[in-house]
Amino acid sequence: MNKTLIYSTLLVAMAASSMADTWLIDSDEDWKKNQSKQENLEFKNGMASPLEKDSFYQSKIKQFKKAKNLKTLTIDQSPIWQNWNSVENLGPSNLGDAPVFLSLGPNDYWIFGRYRAGTKKQQKAFQAEEVSLDGYDETLKTTKYPNQFNAPSGLKASQGGYHAWHSRDMKNWVHYGSITDKVSRWMTTAEYVDGKFYFYYDYPNDQDPHLYIDSNLKDGEPGENKGLAFKDPSDGSDCTFFRDKDGKFHVIYEDWSPIDANKRSWDSPLAGHAVSEDGISDFKILSPAVDNRTSPTGKFAEYKHPHWLQHPDWDSNIARYEIHEGEQEAYGDWASIKIGGQYYLFGDYDPVGGHQMSTGWFTSDSLDKQFKWCDHIGSGHPDPDIGFANGEFQLITQQKNDYTSPGPWVESVEVRVGIDSSNDGVIDRWTDWAEVKESYDYTPGFAKHVQKIAAAIDLSSLSKAYGVQFELKIKDTTENKSKPILDKLMIEYK
């Protein structure tokens, strides 16, 4: 096929797509005015939410003046993502401090943290044995920890910073040794770009993000220390870096300017946001990603940070903030992920009252908008990270319990579609009932992007219709807090 014909075919396909019409249900009014019958549903915030374990929706018949070819029916659910299940610790049992996680694709999972070697007495008491492990070329050595192994580089002396472990199944972990040194021991987040790992660390703790770039995590040596990446105008980095599809790096960081963070788990109601072309320098500050400040008073106060004077080139341990009236919720230690077109921020959640901490999360359909609060789970100071591995989402914390999720979609939703093919206003053919659900997959080249395959059924085999109707059976099959809340439904036709 020549280039002219390919181009012409593409234009025809684009034109056909642009000519397609939709029946869209996307608001409280839409759900109500299009219903013929419903059971155990309430319509709120533009969504259809079940009131019981089982619910039902039947639409009215939508009539067409001319017969139409139906294409697809697609359903979106609420992005609130409450579908989480508690599990035992997901990473290596001797990983210390806040975990940092990157998923590069199937069977290619990296986790980073401090290395807890145990006492010298414990180390001498254990006799390592050589073993081989499927998928690894190196001869490995057993450790005193179940399902954990040392690669040759993992036996090098620690440099006092973060270490790297690799897994193919989220169960067996191979330790490869140091990736940063003692100066960069306050590591906060990581990204992946074209075979290179970007490791961001605060220097000093809770201050400006600095950067290591490393292209070989299996040598037990830190990569290149690029130094300062982003000069944070406030105190309290504990940030996440996220590379979007356009290649730009976004940093979401704790901004302590409105709070005495010393009294609120070193978190804040304000999350700053900046962007850079390369993630290395020249960050431009944008509007806050999260802003739940109460009323400013115009008065300022100070407090001390316990770590800043530990660094010889840092001459102050004083942080200054504006006093706000009304107690503030606090969030921080941010982590990020994108699923389809939806962005999520996970982090510490310290509610009003203080120190009943848990993991909380926010969401937005755009990095140009403020993120909205979703929910929280667990207890304790989490310092979490989030990724997609083994077909599930992994929410990894520094607590004893972690969490897994099949995704934001909650089961189950069944649908069938009826058509009026004789133009008499009566449905004369129904499809079989079919369960629909979203599915997810890795995005090659992006560690924090997950593809979303929509919950949809193909209607193109149906004959031309003068009218269409659909029915939904919604059943909450989960044992956790989540339930299948429908956000929008769309039938496409032409």
In angstroms, what is the radius of gyration?
26 Å
The coarse silhouette is globular
- The rounded distance between the terminal residues' Cα atoms is 28 Å
Name the poorly predicted regions.
1-18
How many helices? The count is 3
The residue fraction in helices comes out at under 10%
User: Which band does the percent of strand residues land in?
Assistant: over 45%
In round numbers, the mean pLDDT is 94
Question: Features of this protein?
Answer:
single chain; 494 residues; mainly beta; seven-stranded antiparallel beta sheet; seven-stranded mixed beta sheet; 6% helix; globular; disordered N terminus
Structure write-up:
The strands form nine sheets. Strands 2, 5, 6, 34, 35, 36 and 40 form a seven-stranded antiparallel β-sheet that branches. With 494 residues, this protein is mostly beta strands. The longest helix is centred in the first third of the chain and has 17 residues, at 3-19.
Brief rundown of the structure:
With 494 residues, this protein is mainly β. Strands 2, 5, 6, 34, 35, 36 and 40 form a 7-stranded antiparallel sheet that branches. The chain has a 7-stranded mixed sheet with strand order 9-10-14-15-13-12-11, with no helix packed on it. The chain has a 6-stranded mixed sheet with strand order 30-29-28-27-38-37, with no helix packed on it.
